[in-house]
User: Fold this.
Amino acid sequence: MLAVPGSSEEWSIGLRDYISHKPAGPERWDFLERLLPGKLSKDFVEALKAVVGRPHVSTATVVLEQHGRDESIHRCQPPDVVVWPQNVEQVSQLAALCYREGVPIIPFSTGTGLEGGVCAVQGGVCINLTHMDRILELKPEDFSVVVEPGVTRKALNTHLRDTGLWFPVDPGADASLCGMAATGASGTTTIRYGTMKENVLNLEVVLPDGQLLHTAGLGRHFRKSAAGYNLTGLFVGSEGTLGLITATTLRLHSAPEATLVATCAFPSIQVAVDSTIHILQAAMPVARIEFLDDAVIDACNRHSNLNCTVAPTLFLEFHGSERALEEQLQRAEEIIQYNGASHLSLVKKEQYSQLWAARHNALYAFRALRPGCKNYTTDVCVPISRLPEILVQAKEDLKALGITGSTCPLLGRALALHGTCTGEHGIGLGKRQLLQEEVGPVGMETMRKLKAALDPRGLMNPGKVL
Assistant:
């Protein structure tokens, strides 16, 4: 496939014409060398080095392979070259250079994605943004902070430790915050603090042609606005297909005065899910409520040295004052007992981190159960009213198929229940057909028009989402 605009048929005809009518010579083959898949001209690579400096460009095989895969099952598809810009000006110059030469651009940060979003399906230039790792502006009085792509979630919260503020969106991995914005990430705290879509106030984006866009206006970090189209929302979750996010302005939250963590084992999945729904319907300000079936609990016990009862289980976390925590705990206890469970088991403070680390490492716990095998990880979201149905059915599906795994519903079933094919991982490579089923032909056509308007040459992370 040629890294140039237009359909493959149009460009194959154009290439044949060029070969037929141009005399042989160095300039003829220099042109072809730029177009051939999996290969960039030496002049182009030298031009990249002129922008970022020779030490910040690599074509080493091992480096290319490291940048051609993430945590998904998708096979490695390495780029042709990796570059490490040091600032937004260099990112802009790199994008303009690639745009001018018709070379694909693949953004990269920590590589923790789960849908093949960093795979270079058409080769091209991987722009690794991790060297841009500054916290640019912190405004505690406005509950906002501006960070570059190399700043991770844990690094930001370490920086905020003495301010009484924190950034709560927690996808498990210590991901780049700009990468989290690009994928529309969420995590265990979504129930109280929302996803990245609710916590991104502004984005600095380098567009495919190198232009610099501030989605809410330069330097602005307001909590609400009715000014024009929601450009920030357009780029959150765009998975690198519309531009390169070079800074994000985030909404911060007050750190909780006190925290309480508890677990509860249930006699069945149905009872556990019913209890979850009733807790939500009671408008309790629970900070985290995670469901783990018996298979996950067993794997986590083995891998993370937990000692939980092997049964469908809820991990819960409450935030607030000491008095508020007592009230929340009492109400939660009443609900689970009403639904047929016994009681909540409080977790010791020194074990909080171990418990949530075990939850986040469930993927690796399952890998340990089947050495030599790979995980297939997916995520869906359905209306709360359909949650018991899909979890119970998914458990039955896994048993019937003889698959080792937790209650991760099959994707088609989620769509049939008016859910979505991805709650937080994104579309990437593997869910493009499911996206079409989900949003329909008019929705897909609207997305393609937006893509064409912002990236008319189709160079930004090609082969993903659409």
Residues 432-454 form the longest helix (23 residues). Residues 105 and 249 are 24 Å apart (CA to CA). The chain has three domains: 8-128, 140-204+219-254, 258-372. The domain at 140-204+219-254 is CATH 3.30.465.10 (Uridine Diphospho-n-acetylenolpyruvylglucosamine Reductase; domain 3).
